[in-house]
Specification:
With 267 residues, the chain is an alpha/beta fold. It has helices at 36-48, 73-86, 100-106, 120-126, 143-155, 181-190, 199-203, 209-219, 245-266, and strands at residues 14-15, 18-19, 25-29, 53-55, 90-93, 109-112, 133-136, 161-165, 195-197, 223-227. The structure holds phosphoenolpyruvate (PEP) and manganese (II) ion. Manganese (II) ion binds at residues 31, 201, 227, 237-238.
Length: 267
């Protein structure tokens, strides 16, 4: 039987202070790390506004080859500093097996993005390390295919896999992607793996983030990952979909209220 189907008694774990699957992962931060000062400044905002993980991209998988590609290893060092200053765990995306070794030195969680969800060579290597892996749904993966991607990591012995719904391509073009909320409910039926929602890439629209995040919690998500920037207008990537720290704080409070209500109802 596939490993994603059956939870083991040893599958509970913490990322720093956060008990994955029990508490919500509240991940915020910029699409790209732009400088040490920037990621520390925004990281502090995330912490002060109730976030429990800081995100920041150092290796960027940009659709255009001419767009900002990220600060690379330098960026990882800055992100790690933001983690030290705030005491929060940090997450970054890697694109290449050659970056695993350096990433494990600087971050607490590794992210596999939509464009690499079916990079089986990368997934197999990530199965060999002891670090939580957030794996997004691919640009065209079905739910079953996505779970099989997760299986590649689990198979190697790394059971700290977290799925992240980031929207799928449909004919709808008002939003950047279409968030597949049914996928969240389906995954909850097919798998024990925790799943979070990325409403930023899911919609591409800051004004929809709050509603989508709340819907994600209702659907059963174990957390959310949102792009946050204090100066979205000068962000080097995805500025148009970033929300401000104040907005992140507002959403975090509403999510907490909603989660408490849902927990009390399920008792
Ligand atoms: C990101 O999280 O910055 C990102 C590139 O996301 P995705 O892989 O979902 O496009
Ligand atoms: Mn982005």
């Amino acid at each position: 039987m596939e490993l994603y189907k059956k939870k083991d008694k040893n599958d509970n774990y913490k990322i720093k202070n956060v008990e994955v699957g029990k508490e919500l992962l509240k991940i915020g931060g910029p699409c790209s790390i732009e400088s040490e000062e920037q990621i520390i400044r925004i990281g502090k905002e995330i912490k002060n506004r109730g976030g429990n993980v800081i995100r920041g991209g150092a290796f960027k998988a940009r659709t255009s080859a001419y767009s900002f590609q990220g600060l690379g290893i330098e960026g990882l060092k800055y992100l790690s500093e933001a983690g030290k200053v705030t005491g929060l765990p940090v997450v970054t995306e890697i694109l290449d097996v050659r970056d695993i070794e350096v990433a494990v030195k600087y971050v607490d969680i590794i992210q596999v993005g939509a464009r690499n969800a079916q990079n089986y060579v990368l997934l197999k290597e990530l199965g060999k390390i002891d670090m939580p892996i957030i794996i997004k749904n691919g640009m065209s993966t079905t739910i079953k295919e996505w779970l099989n991607c997760a299986e590649y990591i689990l198979m190697g012995g790394n059971r700290k896999v977290i799925l992240c719904e980031r929207g799928i391509r449909t004919f709808e073009d008002y939003t950047r992607n279409t968030i597949d909320f049914s996928a969240i409910a389906v995954i909850k039926q097919l798998s024990w793996l925790p799943i979070i929602l990325d409403p930023s890439h899911g919609t591409g629209k800051p004004e929809l983030i709050e509603t989508m995040t709340l819907c994600g919690v209702v659907a059963g998500c174990n957390g959310f990952m949102v792009e946050v920037h204090d100066r979205p207008e000068i962000a080097k990537s995805d500025g148009l979909q970033a929300i401000k720290p104040e907005c992140f704080g507002k959403i975090e409070k509403k999510v907490d209220k909603l989660q408490s209500f849902l927990m009390s109802e399920s008792e």
